[in-house]
Amino acid sequence: MWKLTGNSNLPIYLQIVDLIETKIMNGELLPEEKLPPERQLAEFFGVNRSTVVRALDELTARAVIVRKQGSGTIVNAEKWGLFAGQSTNWRHYLTQGGFTPAVPYIRQTGVMERADSEQVIDASTGELPLEMTPKMETPSLSWQSFIAEEQLEDEAGYRPLRETVQKQMHDAYGLNARPEQIFITSGAQQALFLITQCLLKPGDAVAIESPSYFYSLSLFQSAGLRIFALPMDDDGVIISELRDLYHKHRVKMVFVNPTFQNPTGLVMSLKRRKELVKVCAHLQIPIVEDDPFSELAALDSEIPVPLKQLDSDNVLYIGSLSKIMGSTTRIGWLIGPTAVIERLALARQEMDFGLSIFPQVLANSVLNTAGYKEHLKQLHQVLAVRRDHLIAALEEILPNELAFIRPKGGFHLWVKLPVEFRSICDFDIFLANDLLVMPGFLFGVKETVIRVTYARLEKDDSRQVANIIKQILIEKSAMKLD
């Protein structure tokens, strides 16, 4: 409580003055509250008693405190209200709230992205660059037409779009879902938010595959959930580890991203998928399957069926258009049992998180145009080329120094570095070299790994990325020698 920050250029006695004034202003010290004795304050601050006396003299001169012979030093009740202003201790509320701010690394990455400097290479943002978004015309509709389309919307979303999603899921994966089992959301994160807020309660244990981008989202902590890492191998989550977590912590839900997993790019094998749904059904643990990348498989690769097709009752399936149509297309969907969809739709309505009709009508129009499939085909080709350019550059410039698995789809390359980064701050070296990547600690792992988003890199960018990583490794090796 009584501690100086140590990073001020002010004289010590003025730092003490500021600290006491701050405690009064935020309500930690109340009118007529007694301060500790001078000798005790000197011990707290690690200073001579004379320094404390000088600080208290200054506060007395400002009429902030009153020093009474035989009674000690108290906060001035008469001047306190004028001096302190608002007495609510907002700092306490800020630290007690459920929302967890982004870690400094992510905030700094965001600042550098928005600066839009030509020197900065963005290999961190998990979104399509503008030049890869669909080049299709939007429907020409009048204001009255949009109002008329609203009549086709209920709590679960715009029915024509739900019917379109139903058809696409059936054609692509053989998944049979009725429109009433499909819930339109403003992206995958709204679906995750509603699941964590409405189907779980604070203190519940959830298992999340590790590594995973889920660890970079604050919504799990904000919901008061206990998170347990579910280790993976090359085939996906390790089933024996899930059993152990269930018996130790009574896991209530499992969150996975089985196809082109973010950040590793791995695809859970069909055998492992079948094992996962079987074990979870036996233990009565619902599975949340996040699947934003399935439509981004390379043209020469086959992917297993979704978990949802293997167990339609126990799996909540989340899909999204943002990875295909760009981040501004905040449209996703959740497929689940009718009772669950009704519960989440009602909860969203009560929270006033309604979804505008405009993006739903536009998304439905785009999905039903002939140009959509052509866009997907072009997207597959461009992503495969960009992936190959990055891998070729890394193998040429850093031969045998990095470890990674060539992904068969998605946006990302998960790269293990040959040097040890001892702390989170060590990764700032990437920012200092104008390279934006996502370090492993953001995905819940301690190893020295980075996620490089090749979707945003042209050929020259990939070579620059490889050269910068090489320079960083040289710098880190030199630091180690020092």
Automatic annotation (TrEMBL):
Keyword Transcription: yes
Transmembrane segments: none
A molecular-function term among this protein's GO annotations: DNA binding
SUPFAM superfamilies for this protein: PLP-dependent transferases (SSF53383), Winged helix' DNA-binding domain (SSF46785)
Presence of the UniProt keyword DNA-binding in the record: yes
Annotated HTH gntR-type domain residues: 10-78
Cofactor: pyridoxal 5'-phosphate
Matching InterPro entries: Aminotransferase_I/II_large, HTH_trans_reg/aminotransferase, PyrdxlP-dep_Trfase, PyrdxlP-dep_Trfase_major, PyrdxlP-dep_Trfase_small, Tscrpt_reg_HTH_GntR, WH-like_DNA-bd_sf, WH_DNA-bd_sf
Keyword terms: Aminotransferase, DNA-binding, Pyridoxal phosphate, Transcription, Transcription regulation, Transferase
UniProt family annotation: In the C-terminal section; belongs to the class-I pyridoxal-phosphate-dependent aminotransferase family.
PANTHER family in UniProt: HTH-TYPE TRANSCRIPTIONAL REGULATORY PROTEIN GABR (PTHR46577), TRANSCRIPTIONAL REGULATORY PROTEIN (PTHR46577:SF2)
Protein name: PLP-dependent aminotransferase family protein
